[in-house]
Amino acid sequence: MPEVEIRTATEADVPLILSLIKELAEYERLAHEVSATEDLLRESLFGERQGAEALLGYHEGDPAGFALFFHNFSTFLGRSGIYLEDLYVKPELRGRGVGRAMLVYLAKLARERKCGRLEWSVLNWNEPAIRLYRGIGALPMDGWTVYRLTGESLEGLASQG
Description:
- Helices cover about 35% and strands about 25% of the residues.
- It is of the alpha+beta class.
- The protein has a single domain, classed as Aminopeptidase (3-Layer(aba) Sandwich), CATH 3.40.630.
- A 5-stranded mixed beta sheet has the order 1-2-3-4-5, sandwiched between helices.
- It is globular, with a radius of gyration of 16 Å.
């Protein structure tokens, strides 16, 4: 068995994915924001209108992490891209190539799907992740700020007009 294995998640993996999402939220100090459930993930990842896809990373046969991604679109490139929403590797398994292997898998998938780019966001304080990303040649998008509407703000805007 290879030391690191990456595979596409299946519906049977939903409990594992949710568990890893909760671990990621703890690591990012955002556990209070997790409202995902197995049912929501099952519908979003494997339902009639799939909003995202997931990969699972294994180290020596044990679950080590996950990557969750979806397609976006670049008007300038005229092509779809892949947006990596989350990449998480269990702390005790970091530095063993799992995160890098998931990024390689996603880069190959982007090439196979003729995507114009692969992109993601990283918390400014997450130095280990930033080192990994710089090590593979990824560059920060200086001059861009992410904006987000959620909850009451989203509902308020949707209710206008």
